[in-house]
From TrEMBL:
Compositionally biased region (Acidic residues): 964-984
Keyword hit for Membrane: no
Keywords of this entry: 2Fe-2S, Iron, Iron-sulfur, Metal-binding, Oxidoreductase, Zinc, Zinc-finger
Designated name of the protein: Xanthine dehydrogenase/oxidase
Lineage of origin: Eukaryota, Metazoa, Ecdysozoa, Arthropoda, Hexapoda
Necessary cofactors: Mo-molybdopterin; [2Fe-2S] cluster; FAD
Pfam hit, one: MoCoBD_1
Organism per entry: Orchesella cincta
Length: 1215
C-alpha cells in the first residue's frame, strides 16, 4: 500500500504450509517509488526471506528496475534477473528448491499486478488484461457456516430413551474445564520413580558398546536397564509375529529403537540422564525407501487378489493406459503422548494404568515378557487423549520397558514419552505406491485393472500385512469392474515400524482408484464425474473382486441426493465461467463417492464382551471391552444400556476399561467397537431386564429402585455378562472359500467439494502434516444422513462412522486437481498429469506450470549434488530437520527485528527532533574514532615479516574463515548503553534503544569497510618474506604514505567477544594446563598466572625470533578524541617503534570522548550506576570486580585500566 510518501508503494507477502501459525517457506517485502508523470521507477528495493541463511536483498534486480518504465515488459525482464540472483543449489538446506525459486518470481509478478491496481485507474499497466487482475485480490475466507441434518425421533419415544437423540459427550464438560484425568494426571504413589527411554541415534547398525556411567552418576538417577538386564527369552515381543525386542541386544533396525530405559526420581532427571548414555555402533547400510526394498526384495508379506480374466480384458480393450501414484505417510499426532504407570503388587501381580486402545494386547505382552499367567496382570485405561490407531499395538514401546523397570526395582515406575520421541519411534500411516495398467474402451468403460501396490512397513511387521490386505480389498471402491489382477508388497525398511491408522489401508487404496478414474476421464475426454457415475455399483447383484454378491448398496442414492442437494450442475457452470475470466486464480469442483467395509476379515477379532451390574440403590455399573479416546464410545454404550433397561442415563456409570472386568477384549479400532461391545451391552442388559420382569408385573406402579430392591431380597443375580460374535473371514491363501463374508456391512457416502487455487502463490493448501486449525474448516460445511437407510445388522440400527468419513476429504484433493487442470489447459498443457498426495503447496504450484516453473525446471536440469536433508518422503536425521526449522525461525525473528528498528528510528526522529540528530552525530563520531584506532592496530598487527614455526602456519582457507568469524563476532557486538552521562544525569531508555540501533547501523557500515580492505589486501602483491604492502586508512582517507608495516602476529592482540566480555585473542595461542597455568601452543613453555601483555611479548619472540618492542604511549588528540596512527619503518627511531599493545586493545573496545556537552563516555558501559535515595549522589560498581567508586569519569577510567590490567603509565586522566 501507499505508506510513507506520495507515489511510494510497499507490499509484503508470506507463503507457509498452513494458513495460521506457521513458519514461512519464502516471504518477501518490496518497495518502489514511481514517478506518476513518466511512470519511471525512481527507487526500488526487493528483500526476500527463506532464500538464504539470512534475509537476502535482491540488489541486482533492484538496481535493474531503477529508471525503467513501470510496465509488464520491465518486470518480465526483471524476473530473469531475479531468477539468476536467487538461484539455489540442488541440495540447499530446507529442500523444496524448485518451489522456492518459483515463489520468488511469483511474488514479483504479484507485486507488479498489485501495485498497478493501487495506481491511478488510468494506469496503462493492466489495460486490456482483465484476467490478470485476479492475482490482485486475495482469497478471502468469509464467514463460516454449516448445517447438519438428522432424523427426529418419534414423538412416542420415551424421554429417558436417548437413542437417536443428539446428546453431549458424557465427559464434554470435563474436557472443556480441564478436569478430565489422563494417565499423566494420576496422583503419584509414594516413592514412584520415572522412566525415560534411550533410543538409537542411527537407522541401522551393530551395537558395539553401551556406556551409562555418566547417566548413572547424575544425582537422582536410580537405574539403567538394557538387554543385558533381562534374560534373552524375556526380551522378545511382536504384534502378529515375534520379530521385535524390548531392548535392542545386538542390532538396531531404526532410528529411535529402544536400547534401554533410565529410571530416576523425577521425569526431568530421567530425561536429562537418557541423553548422557553413550553408544557406539558399526553402522550398516539402511533400507529407507520402497525402491530400496524392492531392489533388495525386502518384504514383510506379499499378497495377491485376482478376479475374472485380465488377459481377456486387455484383448478387448480399445486403449491401454498406464500410470503411477504415491501417497505419503501421516503422523498420528494424538494430543496425549504414549504413557504408562506400572506398579508391582504381591504374588507377582502387576497393575498397569496406561493410554492404550487394546488393554488385552498389553496384558498378553506383559505376561509373556514376565513369564507369568495373564491373570496376574491387570491393565486399566480410563481415557485416552486420542489414538487413531497409534495406541493399538505400538504401546509396547512404552509399556514393556516400564514394566521391566518396575519389576527389577520393586517400585511403581511412570514413563511418559515426550512429543519428539513419540513422533520418532511410534511410526504412522503407511506410505503407499501404486503402479497400474488399465484396459479401457473408447467410451471410458474400464474392463480390467492390473495394479501393484507397495507399502513402506518399517522395521517390523506389526500391522503391515493386514494393512496391505485391507488395501487390496478396498481398491475396488464403489465401482463395478469385471477383471482384476492385484499384487501387494509390504516392504521391510529401516524406518520406525508403521502401524494401524484410521482407515487401515483403505484410504490409500481408494485414492488410487479415484486417480485411475480421473486418468481415464482425461484419456477419453470426459468429465471424471461422468466416468464415476458410469461405473457406480448397482443396489443389488454386482460382484466384488473377493467373489461375494453385493446387496443393499446405497451409493447411487447417496450420489443422487448429494449432487442434487449441493446444486452441483449450477456450481460447475459458475466454476467454468470463473476460470474463463481469471488467469491467476482457478476453481475446481468434483463429486467423490466412498465405500467402507465394516468388520475384521479375520474372524477371531469379531467378538465383544460386557459386564453390567445393578446395585441395591438402583445405580448401574457398566463395563465393556472398548476404550474411550474422545470418540464417545462410553456415551454410546450408556445410551444402549439406558434403552435396554428403561432407565435414565444418569443412573449409569462407567469408570474405566479393565482386563479384570472384561477379559480377552478386541482392541478399539476399525469402526467396530460400537457394534461388538454395544451388542454385548444390549444382551447383558436384556438378561437383567428379563430377571426384573416378574417384580415389575407384581408392582406395576413401583419405581426402578423398588423393583431392584425386591429382586435383591429374593436373591436374584443383579449382574450379567454379555457376549457378541460374528463369523466373518477372508483367506488370501484360499480365495475360493466364500462360505463367510469378509465384512459385517458396508457404509457409503458421497461428497461435493469446491476449491479456489491461487496459481501464483498458494495460500490455502495443506502441507507436510500439520495439525488442522480453525482456518482449515470448510467455509461452507453441510452434512446430512441418508434417509430411509436402516441397518438391521447392528445394534439399534447403528453404523460404524469412525473411519468412513475420512476418505470423503479426498474430494478436496481431486477438486484441487480440477483447478490445476484448468490452469494447465489455459497455457496449452495436458490435463493428464501425475499428481501425488498429499497436495502440498509445493506440488500445487509446480503443477500449475507456466514460464516461471519452466524456467526453474530448465535451470535445474543436470543439477548434481546430494539431495537436501529436508526431504518430504523420508527424513532420517530429525535433528537436522529441527535445526532447519530453528534456522528458518531465527531468520523470521531477524526480519521482524529489522522492521521494528526501522519503525523505532522513525518514531525517535518524530519524538526528539533536533536532539535525535545531535545524538546521532555523537555516536557516529565515537564510532569513527573507534574504527580509526582499530584500523591502525589491525594493519600494524596483521602479518609477521620474519620466520614462523611450522605449527603456526595455516592454509589460506582457514585464515580466511578465521577472519570472517572475527568480523562476524565484531559485527554482532551490542552497542554500549551507559546509564548516566558525564554529568551524572540519567539517560532515558528510549534514547539508549536508539543509540543501540545507530551503533548497529554504523557497525554494518564498518563491516563493509573491513571487507573492502580485506579484498584489497588479497589483491596486493606479497614479497618473498610473506609481508604485505597495505594502505592504512582512517575513515576512508589515505594515511602513512603506504609505508611497509612491521607487525605483531595477527592472532596475538586482537580482542574478541567471549561470554559477554572482551578478552584478548592472545589466549588462543595458549592451552590451559592447570589452575591458572597456561602453556604456549608453539614452544610448550608454561606460565603461572600470566598477564596478557607478557604473553603478547612471548608470542612475538616465539614466532619471530626477535625481541618485542618496548612500550610507549600512543599520541592522542584531546579535541577530536582520535588516535594518531604511527607508521613504523626502518628509518624511524626506537621510541616511535615502541607502541603499547595493551592500550591499543583498550582503544579497540572503548572509544574516547571529549567530555564536552552531552556526549556520553563509553567507560560507563563497564559499570553499574547507583544513586543514593537521600543524598542523590551517584556511585559506580565495576562489573568486573564489583568495586564501588565515585560516579565520575576520571576515577572510572583509572579504575578500568587497573582492573583490566592496562598500563597506568600511558594513561592521561584528562582524556
Amino acid at each position: 500500500m501507499n505508506l510513507w510518501q506520495a507515489n511510494e508503494y510497499v507490499w509484503a507477502v508470506k507463503q507457509a504450509r498452513r494458513r495460521e501459525d506457521d513458519i514461512a517457506i519464502v516471504n518477501a517485502c518490496m518497495r518502489v517509488v514511481v514517478n506518476p508523470a513518466t511512470l519511471n521507477i525512481e527507487d526500488a528495493l526487493l528483500v526476500y526471506g527463506g532464500m538464504a541463511p539470512t534475509t537476502k536483498i535482491a540488489k541486482i534486480t533492484s538496481q535493474f528496475l531503477l529508471q525503467k518504465k513501470w510496465s509488464e515488459n520491465t518486470f518480465d525482464t526483471a524476473a530473469n534477473e531475479l531468477y539468476e540472483e536467487m538461484k539455489l543449489e540442488a541440495n540447499a538446506p530446507g529442500g523444496m528448491v524448485a518451489y522456492r525459486q518459483v515463489l520468488t518470481q511469483s511474488f514479483l509478478s504479484k507485486f507488479f499486478l498489485t501495485v498497478s491496481s493501487w495506481m491511478s485507474p488510468t494506469n496503462i499497466s493492466l489495460s486490456g488484461k482483465e484476467k490478470e487482475k485476479s492475482a490482485v485480490f486475495p482469497i478471502t475466507r468469509g464467514e463460516t457456516s454449516g448445517v447438519q441434518l438428522y432424523q427426529i425421533v418419534p414423538k412416542s419415544q420415551k424421554v429417558e430413551d436417548l437413542i437417536g437423540r443428539p446428546i453431549a459427550h458424557l465427559s464434554a464438560l470435563k474436557h472443556a474445564t480441564g478436569e478430565a484425568v489422563y494417565t499423566d494426571d494420576e496422583v503419584p504413589l509414594l516413592g514412584q520413580l520415572h522412566g525415560a527411554l534411550v533410543g538409537s541415534p542411527i537407522a541401522h547398525g551393530k551395537i558395539i558398546s553401551i556406556d551409562a556411567s555418566k547417566a548413572l552418576a547424575l544425582p537422582g538417577v536410580v537405574e539403567f536397564l538394557s538387554a543385558k538386564s533381562i534374560p534373552a527369552d524375556h526380551n522378545v515381543q511382536g504384534h502378529i509375529i515375534d520379530d521385535e525386542e524390548i531392548f535392542a541386544s545386538e542390532y538396531v533396525h531404526c532410528q529411535g529403537q529402544t536400547i534401554g530405559i533410565i529410571v530416576a526420581v523425577d521425569p526431568l532427571t530421567a530425561e536429562k540422564a537418557s541423553k548422557l548414555v553413550e553408544m557406539k555402533f558399526e553402522e550398516l547400510t539402511p533400507i529407507l525407501t520402497i525402491e530400496d526394498a524392492v531392489k533388495k526384495e525386502s518384504y514383510h508379506a506379499v499378497r495377491k487378489l485376482r478376479a475374472g480374466n485380465i488377459a481377456e480384458a486387455f484383448e478387448k480393450a480399445d486403449e491401454i493406459l498406464e500410470g503411477e501414484m504415491r501417497i505419503g505417510g501421516q503422523e498420528h499426532f494424538y494430543m496425549e503422548p504414549q504413557s504408562c504407570i506400572a506398579t508391582p503388587k504381591e504374588d507377582q501381580e502387576m497393575d498397569i494404568l496406561m493410554s492404550c486402545q487394546g488393554p488385552d494386547y498389553v496384558q498378553k505382552l506383559v505376561a509373556k515378557a514376565l513369564k507369568i499367567p495373564a491373570n496376574r496382570v491387570k491393565v486399566r485405561c480410563r481415557r485416552m487423549g486420542g489414538g487413531f490407531g497409534g495406541k493399538e499395538s505400538r504401546t509396547c514401546l512404552v509399556s514393556l520397558p516400564t514394566v521391566m523397570a518396575a519389576v527389577k526395582l520393586g517400585k511403581s515406575v511412570k514413563t511418559v514419552m515426550n512429543r519428539w520421541d513419540d513422533m520418532v519411534v511410534t511410526g504412522g500411516r503407511h506410505p503407499f505406491q501404486c503402479r497400474y495398467k488399465l484396459a479401457i474402451t473408447k467410451e471410458g468403460r474400464i474392463l480390467g485393472v492390473q495394479a501393484t501396490l507397495y507399502s513402506n512397513g518399517g522395521c517390523s511387521s506389526d500391522a503391515s500385512p493386514p494393512v496391505m490386505e485391507k488395501a487390496l480389498m478396498s481398491i475396488e471402491a464403489v465401482y463395478t469392474i469385471p477383471h482384476w489382477d492385484m499384487h501387494g508388497f509390504a516392504c521391510k525398511t529401516n524406518l520406525a515400524s508403521n502401524t494401524a491408522f484410521r482407515g487401515y489401508g483403505g484410504p490409500q487404496a481408494s485414492i488410487f482408484m479415484e486417480n485411475i478414474i480421473d486418468a481415464v476421464a482425461e484419456k477419453v475426454g470426459k468429465s471424471p464425474v461422468e466416468i464415476r457415475e458410469m461405473h457406480l455399483q448397482q443396489q443389488n447383484g454386482d460382484k466384488s473382486p473377493m467373489g461375494y454378491v453385493i446387496t443393499d448398496c446405497m451409493v447411487r442414492k447417496c450420489w443422487e441426493e448429494c449432487v442434487r442437494g449441493s446444486n452441483y450442475q449450477e456450481r460447475k457452470a459458475k466454476v467454468d465461467e470463473f476460470n474463463k475470466e481469471n488467469h491467476w486464480k482457478k476453481r475446481g469442483i468434483t463429486v467423490t463417492p466412498m465405500k467402507h467395509n465394516v468388520g475384521f476379515h479375520m474372524s477371531l477379532l469379531n467378538q465383544g464382551g460386557a459386564l453390567v451390574m445393578i446395585y441395591t440403590d438402583g445405580s448401574v455399573g457398566l463395563n465393556h471391552g472398548g476404550t474411550e479416546m474422545g470418540q464417545g464410545l462410553h456415551t454410546k454404550m450408556a445410551q444402549i444400556a439406558s434403552r435396554a433397561l428403561g432407565i435414565p442415563i444418569a443412573k449409569i456409570y462407567q469408570s474405566e476399561a479393565s482386563t479384570d472386568k472384561v477379559p480377552n477384549a478386541t482392541a478399539t479400532c476399525a469402526s467396530m467397537s460400537s457394534d461388538l461391545n454395544g451388542m454385548a451391552v444390549m444382551y447383558a442388559c436384556q438378561k437383567l431386564a428379563k430377571r426384573l420382569e416378574p417384580f415389575k408385573k407384581a408392582n406395576p406402579n413401583g419405581t426402578w429402585e423398588d423393583w431392584v430392591g425386591a429382586a435383591y431380597f429374593n436373591r436374584v443375580n443383579l449382574s450379567a455378562v454379555g457376549f457378541f460374535e460374528l463369523d466373518l473371514n477372508y483367506d488370501f491363501d484360499n480365495p475360493q472359500d466364500l462360505r463367510r463374508d469378509p465384512q459385517f456391512y458396508v457404509v457409503y457416502g458421497v461428497a461435493v467439494s469446491e476449491v479456489e487455487v491461487d496459481c501464483l502463490m498458494i495460500t490455502k493448501g495443506p502441507g507436510m502434516y500439520k495439525i488442522p486449525s480453525m482456518g482449515d474448516i470448510p467455509r461452507v460445511f453441510n452434512v446430512s444422513m441418508l434417509r430411509g437407510a436402516p441397518n438391521p445388522k447392528a445394534v439399534y440400527s447403528s453404523k460404524g462412522l469412525g473411519e468412513p468419513p475420512l476418505f470423503l476429504a479426498a474430494s478436496i484433493f481431486f477438486a484441487i486437481k480440477e483447478a490445476i487442470k484448468a490452469a494447465r489447459k489455459e497455457v496449452g498443457l495436458s490435463p493428464l498429469f501425475r499428481f501425488d498426495a498429499p497436495a502440498t503447496v509445493e506440488r500445487i504450484r509446480l503443477a500449475c506450470e507456466d514460464e516461471k516453473v519452466d524456467k526453474v525446471k530448465e535451470g535445474m536440469k543436470g543439477s548434481e549434488g546430494k539431495p537436501g536433508w529436508a526431504i518430504t518422503q523420508i527424513n532420517m536425521d530429525f535433528q537436522n530437520q529441527l535445526l532447519n526449522c530453528e534456522i528458518q525461525h531465527l531468520g523470521q525473528m531477524l526480519q521482524v527485528i529489522s522492521g521494528e528498528l526501522t519503525i523505532l528510528q522513525d518514531f525517535l526522529k518524530d519524538k526528539f527532533g533536533p536532539d535525535y540528530e545531535l545524538f546521532r552525530e555523537s555516536v557516529v563520531s565515537q564510532q569513527h574514532a573507534s574504527t580509526s584506532s582499530k584500523s591502525a592496530t589491525e594493519f600494524q598487527r596483521g602479518h609477521v615479516p620474519a620466520r614462523k614455526s611450522t605449527s603456526s602456519r595455516k592454509d589460506e582457507s582457514a585464515s580466511k574463515q578465521a577472519q570472517e568469524e572475527e568480523d562476524l563476532a565484531s559485527d554482532m557486538e551490542v552497542g554500549s548503553e551507559s546509564d548516566v552521562d558525564v554529568d551524572g544525569n540519567e539517560v532515558s531508555s528510549s534514547l539508549r534503544m536508539e543509540r543501540g540501533e545507530m551503533v548497529n547501523s554504523q557497525r554494518f557500515e564498518n563491516s563493509n569497510k573491513r571487507k573492502k580492505r580485506r579484498r584489497e589486501m588479497q589483491e596486493s602483491d606479497f614479497d618473498n618474506e610473506g609481508s604485505v604492502m597495505v594502505e592504512n586508512t582512517d575513515d576512508g582517507n589515505e594515511a602513512n604514505d603506504g609505508t611497509m608495516q612491521e607487525t605483531y602476529p595477527q592472532s596475538s592482540s586482537k580482542r574478541v567477544r567471549k561470554g559477554g566480555r572482551q578478552r584478548s585473542r592472545i589466549w588462543q595461542e595458549f592451552t590451559r594446563v592447570g589452575d591458572n597455568s597456561w602453556a604456549c601452543n608453539h614452544c610448550k613453555k608454561e606460565f603461572k598466572c600470566p598477564q596478557a601483555d607478557r604473553l603478547d611479548r612471548h608470542v612475538f619472540k616465539c614466532l619471530t625470533g626477535e625481541k618485542p618492542p618496548k612500550k610507549n604511549p600512543v599520541k592522542r588528540s584531546r579535541d577530536e578524541g582520535t588516535t594518531e596512527s604511527v607508521s613504523i619503518g626502518e628509518d624511524q627511531s626506537e621510541t616511535e617503534r615502541n607502541e603499547t599493545t595493551s592500550m591499543n586493545s583498550f582503544l579497540e573496545s572503548v572509544p574516547s570522548s571529549s567530555g564536552r556537552g552531552r556526549k556520553l563516555d563509553p567507560v560507563w558501559a563497564y559499570f553499574t550506576i547507583r544513586e543514593d535515595p537521600v543524598t542523590k549522589k551517584k556511585t559506580a560498581d565495576c562489573k568486573n570486580c564489583n568495586l564501588t567508586i565515585k560516579g565520575k569519569v576520571e576515577p572510572a577510567r583509572k579504575h578500568f585500566y587497573a582492573c583490566h590490567q592496562l598500563d597506568e603509565e600511558v594513561v592521561d586522566d584528562k582524556t
